[in-house]
Amino acid sequence: MRTRAGSRRWSVAVGVAALAATTGGALSPSAAAEGEAPSGQVEFPTHCAAPPQAGLPPADGPTTARITVDDPAPKAGDTVTVTYQVARTPAVNPMGAGLPADVLTPTGRIVLGGAQSGEVTVVGAKRNDPVEAGAALPAVTMTGTFTVTGAGGITLAPGGYTLHTSHMVDLDTTCAVVGAPVSERLTASPLPRASLRSLALGTAYGRPGAEVEVTGAGFAPGAAVTVAGRAGAAETADRVAATADERGGILARLPVTDRATTAVVAYEGAAWSARRGSGPAAYTVVAAAPTATQRVSAVVGPGALSMTQAGESITLGGVSYGQGGAAPGRIGTVTVTDARGGPAGWTLTGKITEFTGPGGVRIPGASLSWTPRCTVAPGGTGRCVAGGAGAVGPEGAVLASAPDAAQAGGAFTIDATVTLRVPPYTPPGAYRAVLTLTLS
Fold it and tell me: Are the CB atoms for 50 and 94 separated by under 8 Å?
C-alpha cells in the first residue's frame, strides 16, 4: 500500500517544473585552516534537505571535498578557472527507485576570502553511474571562473551545493554547508606598471658618424639622462648626456660612429632598465654609397617618383576598459609610381607619434605594429618588397621598398594591417596619433 501511494505521488509530480535551488548555512570566508589536508581535501558538516516530493527526512553528515585552481599565481585582471570536487556527500537518492546513469547535474558555490570576497558559481556536467534506491549520491565535479580584482592572498572554501536529478521528475537535493575550512589558496600579483618614458629618433638610419636627433618624454624633470647606442643587450661606444627639462622632455643629438649600433636608448641612473629608461629605438648604420651611384645620378629619367594615398585617417577597432588588448585597423592604400626610367630603387618608411588621449594620457607609438603588403601593377618592371612585420613607433620602420634593378619602374600598391596594443585599464576616450610616410 505504501508503494502504491508513493507511485501516485510521483505521477502527480511529473508535471511540476524543476524546484528552485535554495542555499542555507552562513559560511565565513575566513574559515580556519585547521584540519586542512596537504592535498587540499577537506571534510565539513553538511545538512542536505531532500525534495519535498520525496517524503524523506534531511540527511546530516560530513562532505569530503577538494577545490583546485588552474593558476595559483595569477595577476590582477586574470580569469581563474576553479574546480569543486565533492568526493563524498550525505545526500541520498531521492527517488523511490534506482536512478539510471547520466541524470544527475550538480551546481554549487565557492566562497572567496582574504584579498577578495564574494562567491563563485560552479556547475557540473550531467554525468553519473547508476544509483540504487536509498543509496548515497555519487561523487561530482563542478567548475566555474572568476576574475581577480587585486593583488594579495585569496582563500577558497567550499560552499553549499545542489544535486539535481532528472528521471521521471525533476528533483533538487539542497546541501547547506556550515564552517567549511579553506581548501585552496592562491596569491595574485598586481599588473605591471608601464613606463611613461618615450623615445623618438629623427631618422632610423644613417652613415657612420652621422648625428641622429633624439627626443624623449616622461623623464623626471631636471634629471640627468644618458642617450646611448645599443647592440643587442650591450651598449656601444656611442653616448651623449642630456638633461630633462621642467616637463620631463629631452632633446639630444647623438653621433653614431660605432658600426655595431643597432638601436638607441635613453635612461636615468647608472644603467638602462625598463623602469627608468626608454627604448630601444631601432637604428641602422648604413655603409657609404658605392661609386656606382655616380652612374645612377647621371641618368635623367623622363618622369618622376611620386606617391598618393587613399584617405587621410585610420580608425582602429575599440577595446574594453579593464581588459585592454589589440585594436585592429588598416592604413589607407598607398600607390607609388616610379616613372624615372632608371635603375634606382626606392624606400617608403613610416613613423608614428605617441597616441594622446583624454587628460593628456599617452600610449607610446611603439605600441602600434603593422604587417605590410606590396604588389606590382601589371606591366611594371620593378620588384616590390614589403617591410617586415613589427612595431612602427616614432623611430620609424620600412613599409615597402624596391631594390635597384636594370628596370626599376612601375606602379606599386602598398597597404598594411595595423594593431595598437592598449594596456589594461587605459582611461576610456579617443586616442590620436599622426602616422607620417616618407618616400625616398
Answer: yes
Sequence letter at residue 121: T
Q: What is the mean pLDDT of residues 34-40?
A: 54
Residue 320 reports pLDDT greater than 70: yes
The distance of Cα 420 from the centroid of its chain, to the nearest Å, equals: 12
Nearest Cα neighbor of 272 from 312, 324, 232 is 232
Q: pTM here?
A: 0.41
% residues pLDDT > 90 (the chain) = 47
**Best CA proximity match to 186, nearest among 275, 81, 263, 270:** 81
| Amino acid of residue 188 | A
Instruction: Delineate the domains of the chain, giving CATH numbers in brackets.
Output: 28-188 (2.60.40), 198-285 (2.60.40.230), 302-439 (2.60.40)
Q: What is the pLDDT of residues 144-161, one digit of tens each?
A: 999 998 899 999 999 999
